[in-house]
Amino acid sequence: MSRPHEIPENELIRYIEMMMPLGFTAKALSIELGFSADYIKTRAQRSEAVKDAIIKSRLAHTSAVMKTFNQVLLDPGHEKWSMTVAERVASRYMADEEPRESGGSDGSVDVEAAADKVIGDLGEKR
């Protein structure tokens, strides 16, 4: 399945550098480009630009999540969509937690507890 001779190495690296930070996996790129997933992973691991771009992408995502939490936590009367987004994001981090006690059995997620958990997780990764 590998066809490394058909695409110049520098073009392949540029394509990987552009697509992996957007969330494309090595397997998805292997299907699209016709290379093996291992070949693409090897090329991506050699590229500092890919590593930097993925880190920047993850930081931008984390920053967006934290901005949403801050909007909700600092201004509980904020527009309703912000609370919905924050609760959706919070539910990803608190999937194994019990529903909030002050809202009870409706299955809602305690956004403040989720924010604390996210901040704690970020501190551990540093």
Structural class: mainly alpha
What does the largest sheet look like? none
Q: How much strand content do the residues show?
A: under 5%
- Number of E strands: 0
Defining key terms:
elongated, mainly alpha, 0% strand, 126 residues, single chain, 6 helices
Brief write-up:
Helices cover 67% and strands 0% of the residues.
Provide structural commentary:
- This protein is mainly α and 126 residues long.
- The protein has two domains: 9-46; 55-125, no CATH class.
- The protein contains six helices and no strands.
- It has helices spanning 9-19, 26-33, 37-46, 48-74, 80-93, 111-125.
- It is elongated, with a radius of gyration of 20 Å.
- Residues 97-105 have low confidence and may be disordered.
Summarize the topology.
Elements: H1 9-19, H2 26-33, H3 37-46, H4 48-74, H5 80-93, H6 111-125
Helix pairs in contact: 2-3, 4-5, 4-6, 5-6
